[in-house]
Design a protein that fits this description.
Layout (H helix, E strand, L loop, with lengths): L1 H22 L27 H9 L2 H16 L3 H14 L3 H14 L3 H15 L4 H46 L3 H14 L4 H14 L3 H14 L6 H14 L11 H15 L1 H13 L4 H13 L3 H11 L5 H14 L2 H13 L3 H13 L3 H10 L3 H13 L3 H10 L3 H13 L3 H10 L3 H12 L4 H13 L3 H13 L3 H10 L3 H11 L5 H11 L2
Helix pairs in contact: 1-5, 1-6, 2-3, 2-5, 3-4, 3-5, 4-5, 4-6, 5-6, 7-8, 8-9, 9-10, 9-11, 10-11, 12-13, 12-14, 13-14, 14-16, 15-16, 16-18, 17-18, 18-20, 19-20, 20-22, 21-22, 22-24, 23-24, 24-26, 25-26, 26-28, 27-28
Length: 536
């Protein structure tokens, strides 16, 4: 459509130029209007990407050269497109050779560094010479502004997602460093999280102070704890921070004994032995460890022992921590252990926590626990009724892991969100639903969703998939869909299918794409066809 608009503009410009050339000689200097085109000032950078206009301008007289230079440079550099249109039009009226001016204006539009600006210039030229009304131009401008706002919104969403991923990565690196007693590396990782000022900043401050204490940096640890309590007075890490502060102050001035840091390994072994021999006696000790200043590794092991215990008291402690009676790290682990080791009562407790919480990350972890526990009905309920689109998509993803094809297909028919439908398509791929993906690839009316279905179908491989892709290529006229088929056959190593498409393809660009893929495939079918092309 953009190419047609540009072509139409140039045709109209050429027609106007021929009309002026046939009906009048160039106007004498005394008849030039009071506001002729203003030559480009030295502040505008020279443009050297219009060879046809430059070659002509070199041989032209000074007046014509200035007019064409104004047309060319203004088209490329002026932020005001309407000014560019005026300059181009005036150049054509007053240049001695009108046809040359048309060529210069055309080349300037083609070679403009900003292609979008050039297309906008072409559109506005057509509007200037055509019957487009002010209202139509206003509607077009409003539409462009709406599209720009939507693109900016999507870019902002992508930036937020990247920030969350970076935060999670740095936080996980810090946790891993704590588990391996690399305290200095832990401090560095948690400082990166703190700098980002996200929802894990309070957690990062606590663990940074913990690592500083292990390094013997007592004043620094106390300073970090003070920052946590001052800046985050409602943090769920405050109880742990207070316990850590007592320990730091108690040990202030004492020498750090690196060998003592290995005591936790012995504690873990003792906990496991006690849980097997006297589970009821172990529970109070486990609670004390969970409320103390032990390492993440020690506390995780204490939770694990509780989760494996058949004691009613142990299960109560685990459920309470899953409900939030502990720091968020412990809560997430408790939710996970309830899904892995819990029975029907544990899953009911998870459902209760899900219904009462507004924490999206916690609810995602619970949905994952439902998947691990085989709770298909609870996942389906979340996918159908959850108001948060992100959580609906997570529930859909977990259903895909479970291979719930019929449930996913039913959801797809009722779902209105394109983003959630994309997740359903990916979930169908994860669950290996070839039949449903084939149906969507052939019949989905939304081009974006159909394209995603084709791409996921291509990743499944197999002869049946290859035959389906070839059928789609031969019946679908959408270039993006056809390119996705070509890529799919290439990825699934189907040179025979690509050769068959190449033999029938009349579109030179599409055929070139197929041949390029074949040239990177090591197979007899691909080689034979390439030799056949060379022999023609």
């Amino acid at each position: 459509m953009k190419t047609q608009t540009l072509r139409l503009t140039l045709m109209m410009a050429g027609a106007l130029a021929m009309t002026i050339s046939a009906s009048a000689q160039p106007a004498p200097a005394t008849t030039i209007p009071a506001t002729p085109p203003v030559p480009v000032t030295s502040a505008v950078p020279p443009v050297t990407t219009v060879p046809a206009a430059v070659a002509w301008a070199t041989a032209a007289d000074e007046a014509r050269q200035q007019a064409l230079s104004a047309a060319r440079d203004t088209m490329v550099w002026a932020p005001d497109v309407q000014q560019a249109v005026t300059a181009a039009r005036d150049a054509m009226v007053w240049a001695p050779d009108v046809q040359q001016a048309v060529t210069a204006a055309r080349d300037a539009m083609v070679w403009a560094p900003d292609v979008q600006q050039a297309l906008a210039a072409a559109r506005d030229v057509a509007a200037t010479w055509g019957p487009q009304s002010d209202r139509d131009r206003e509607v077009s401008r409003a539409q462009r502004e709406k599209e720009d706002a939507q693109r900016e919104k999507e870019r902002e969403k992508d930036r937020e997602q990247r920030d969350r991923e970076r935060e999670a990565s740095y936080y996980d690196q810090g946790q891993q460093a704590l588990d391996s007693s690399r305290w200095d590396r832990a401090v560095s990782s948690f400082e990166r999280v703190i700098e980002m000022k996200t929802n894990k900043t309070d957690a990062a401050l606590y663990w940074k102070a913990y690592a500083q204490n292990k390094l013997g940096q007592r004043p620094e640890a106390l300073g970090t704890i003070n920052t946590l309590t001052k800046d985050y007075p409602r943090s769920r890490y405050l109880n742990d921070a207070k316990a850590l502060e007592v320990e730091v102050k108690t040990r202030s001035g004492a020498q750090v004994d690196p060998a003592s840091e290995n005591d936790e390994e012995m504690k873990i072994m003792a906990l496991n032995a006690l849980a097997n021999s006297a589970p009821e006696d172990a529970v109070p000790m486990l609670q004390k460890i969970l409320q103390g200043t032990g390492s993440p590794k020690l506390k995780a092991q204490a939770l694990f022992v509780l989760a494996q215990s058949s004691s009613t008291k142990a299960r109560e402690v685990l459920v309470n921590i899953a409900k939030g009676n502990g720091n968020p790290d412990l809560q997430m682990r408790a939710v996970r252990y309830l899904g892995i080791h819990g029975g029907r009562e544990s899953r009911a407790a998870l459902a209760e926590i899900y219904a009462s919480s507004s924490d999206v990350d916690l609810k995602k972890r619970i949905l994952n626990s439902f998947m691990v526990a085989g709770e298909k009905d609870r996942l389906l309920s979340a996918a159908q009724n959850e108001q948060n689109t992100e959580l609906r998509a997570t529930a859909v993803q977990q259903l895909g892991v479970m291979g719930a094809h019929d449930e996913l297909w039913s959801l797809y028919q009722k779902e209105s969100s394109v983003d959630v439908k994309k997740q359903i398509i990916r979930a169908l791929f994860t669950g290996g639903s070839l039949t449903r993906l084939t149906e969507l690839a052939k019949s989905e009316q939304n081009p974006e969703l159909r394209l995603l279905a084709v791409r996921n179908l291509a990743l499944m491989g197999g002869k049946r998939t290859g035959d389906t892709l070839i059928e789609i290529y031969n019946t679908d006229k959408n270039p993006e869909i056809r390119k996705a088929v070509i890529n799919g056959l290439f990825v699934s190593n189907n040179p025979e299918g690509l050769v068959g498409l190449a033999r029938k393809e009349q579109d030179l660009a599409m055929k070139k794409d197929i041949v390029q893929k074949l040239s990177n495939m090591h197979s007899k079918a691909a080689t034979d066809y390439l030799v056949e092309l060379l022999s023609k």
